[in-house]
Amino acid sequence: MRTRGGVLVANIIAGLALGYTVANIGYGDYAELNRMFTFQDLRMLLAFAGAVMIIVMVFAVLRVRRTPGRIHGGVIPGAVMFGTGWAISGGCPAIPIIQVASGYLPALITIAGVIIGMWLCHWANSRYFHLDRGSCGL
Amino acid sequence: MNHYWPWWAGAIGLALITINYTLTTDRSLGVSAAWDRVLHWRSERQLERLDAQFTDDRALVEALAAATAGQFASSPAAHPPASAVHADAQASGQDAAPGAGDEPASAAPVRPAPLITQAALLLSIFVGGWVAAVTAGRFQLRLDMGDGFRQIVTDNPTTMVSLLFAGGVLVGFGTRLAGGCSSGHGLSGCGRLRPVSILATAVFFGTAVFVSFLLWKVI
User: Fold this and answer.
1) How close B199 gets to chain A, by Cα (Å)?
2) What is the pLDDT of residues B34-74, one digit of tens each?
3) In terms of domains, do A60 and A78 share one?
4) How many contacts (CB atoms, under 8 Å) link A and B?
5) Residues of A with Cβ-Cβ distance to B185 under 8 angstroms
6) Interchain proximity B109–A91, CB inside 8 Å
7) One domain, residues A80 and A24
8) What CA–CA distances, in Å, run from B84 to B9, B67, B98, B170, B184?
């Protein structure tokens, strides 16, 4: 599965499963998301934390390799911006796609914002920050 | 009473997706990285071409070395002892070549996934979300973001558009500045106990909690 075709199939399976699962947990529903972040309903928080716990245990048992990752100057400001944007718009980079797929057409505006934000970050980093930000997709 | 999955089903589902993806590809699942690479497809294509060219050049050098070694090994020895020693050395080098070639190959998974696979990931998320909405009876084309958004954030369409756009810009800029999002840092990174991912996840979750309380109780 590590050839080009294998990775393509793995991405399609992961994308289909991720879209299906995230939509059925309710991350695309703004009311549910706000109830999670304000601790009125712990269901979605437990789903996320439970997933992380399972992954940690399985990766430890299988001795999955650590990927390189350095704490750089962009981590905290970037995470603050992301957290603010997620709470306001209800979308992390995958969720607006699921919102549009569920019929919430204004989420197209969120997607437009995400695209412009990423372009701006790319431009600002190459011009001003010069940070080696790493990549979660490796 | 909601109609969404219980927490344990969601946890198992998200964990299975992340674990399966990591084990089958030896890469980490990251949606914001996929977005970023698809958006900068021109430069990514250029990098992929350079990478392919580098791989071809390396294969050519290895083939030439193997052919040279073969020539030396099969030629009649003018100086038997020295030639034999040289041929042995070349032959052992040739034998070692696949091993040496394997090393970059084993390091190859560290290279980013091909661009087309990242575009496929984003499209597949859309299809998966659509199937979930339709099969659960939740699919409905609408021009608002639901009752929750209307009650907690705003019921004014213009303000809604402005906030969604601003929120999207913050998400796009923030995830790329921090080097990941809820899938890359949150699931894959925290799952590997990477300090940078644990820090990023704590900060973006903490900020989202703070802003959500502001929206709910204050604003």
Assistant:
1) 8
2) 988 999 888 888 887 887 777 766 666 777 777 777 665 55
3) no
4) 527
5) 79, 136
6) no
7) no
8) 67, 17, 22, 68, 55
